[in-house]
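Continuing from the previous page of notes. For each protein in this section, the sequence appears first, followed by its structure tokens. Read the first protein now.
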Amino acid sequence: MSPDGNIVRTTGLLGEKLLYVADPKALHHVLLKDQEIWEEHPQFLSDNYLFFGEGLLATIGARHKKQRKLMNPVFSTAHMRNMIPIFQETVGRLRTTLEDLTKNGPQEVDMLHWMGRTAMELIGRSGLGFSFDSLAVDDPGHPAAACFKEILPSASKGSMMFLRAYLLPHVSKLGPAWIRRAIVDLIPSRDLHSVRDKIDTIWATSQEIYAQKKAALSSGDEAVKRQIGLGKDILSLLIRANLKTEDPLDETELLGQMSTLIFAATDTTSSALSRIFYLLAQHPGVQDRIRQEIRTVNEAAGGVMAYDDYEALTYMDTVIRETLRLYPPVTLLMRKANKDVILPFGKPILGTDGRELSEVLVPAGSSLIVSINNANRSKELWGADALEWKPERWLAPLPESIMSAHMPGIYSNLLTFLGGGRACIGFKFSQLEMKVALAEILDAFQLAPSPKAVKWRMGNISTACVEGEPDLSQLPVVLSRAD
């Protein structure tokens, strides 16, 4: 173990030896220099393949690169600009609902519930050109929306943890698909069959949306204009790009991207937004400063903000950055070495025999945990106040220790959105969603803490609960009309 805890040798389930890594140099090799050796963990790939199909999260190597090459242009700044009206209309519906809830005075509101519904609708409309939820209080939403929300909790119940670790990775390699399905049907697990049924609903919905989108595109511009998003949604752009490329994705891969987009964009964004609202409720001065910035920029924009106006919300941006630094929605991930590899360290560590080691030989098949949390919170890099939430740190130049560490993150010297060939492809999309949501909600409402004690659980994705109710995800915040 290193003195600063950036390299730790530990033991996983059933005695598996693991390296726990937050050392910047080691992470640079894992995520960038030697990324072809340090592949996604087999269980991660298996889970995503079985749950969502052949999307970005379930593929590696040349196939992953091919998918990513086609999808990268879809997330360009030019396309993000076209998303603004969709984001504004969607969050505007949430604002109307919350205004109705608070019409008689301050009201305790579960912000995690509303951020989850809103994030799903945002990716539904802008990603697929499809509405899952009107965001009205009494609207249960599309059945697929509930399935997306419940699939991770369902996959973490009872026998599913064992099946995901030791059986399903092998099942996922069998083919064709009807054989895999037959095996799953024969396994006597109620938990597994519950997950299977949710996947069926998600897949059927994806096929329905895809068929509608293809029909509209083949019918011409007028049919496209009648669709949600006017044909500027991610799926429409992806289908068009796929028709033009010499090496197109097959239909199952496109369907896999749909499910993957919804899953990847919903819980992470709702977790991040919920955490920001929670922190702003605790820090009214910061909240007031953002609100004033929003109103100043909005007034200068004539009451209708565009992409560049959201980019001008510099103090809001510091709050988002600092929250994503200290509280990343995903706190760790795993990699597995596909061959023997040397892992170097930025600072020497002490071996079990007391000798200093500047590198170590990692045998093929070894697993490694990338600690996003520890990398983002390093006192050596960020200073003695690294564990404090201080948005103003981003208003000054970053410490030289950060710049010289060469942290391999794609965003702000952080690992929140990872780095390398498997970095989050939609990180700019996520940031824009958050800015539009914060601008709309903070302009209209004041947030204050609930008297209930809130705890944050670390899982696949960080989520909030109330003390005494650990199994129920919720974030109560007192909402009132802002002056």
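Done with the first. The second protein uses the same format. Note its length before scrolling.
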Amino acid sequence: MAESYASAVIPAPVDRVWQWFGDFAGLAEWHPAVTALELEGGSPTEVGVVRRLWLGDGARVRERLTAFDSVGRSYCYEMLEGPFQVRSYRAIVRLAPVTATGATFAEWSARYDTEAEQEAELDRIFVTEVFAPGLAGLARFYTDE
């Protein structure tokens, strides 16, 4: 099983960051690669709700929320459909306070099955084209204040 991981420090209190990051339906508001998002029924905190994403390159992705923890500031989701050659894709996003500075530590990771020869390229794509730009897009909300 392959794993991809990215993290960032966001210069804002964790509760403020969670307002955006914790919204399963809000990804298009802060992720530069997502041009539109639609929920297929349900609410953004309801386990089982499916979101449909449209990416800037024309690709479409469907993801289902599998766990939501507002107290722990995390949620998990699985990819149902997408342009990537993966199976059993499971991701988690998580926030924690940086107590020394009042900032937020954000993590985004995924585990998935793929062919061995595709692992390095998929890791590069998920880290540099999905997770890191998303975290940077979220951080821009707070650095432009």
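What the second structure shows: Residues 4 and 71 are 25 Å apart (CA to CA). Strands lie at 2-10, 34-39, 50-55, 60-69, 74-81, 87-98, 103-113. We return to this in next week's lecture.
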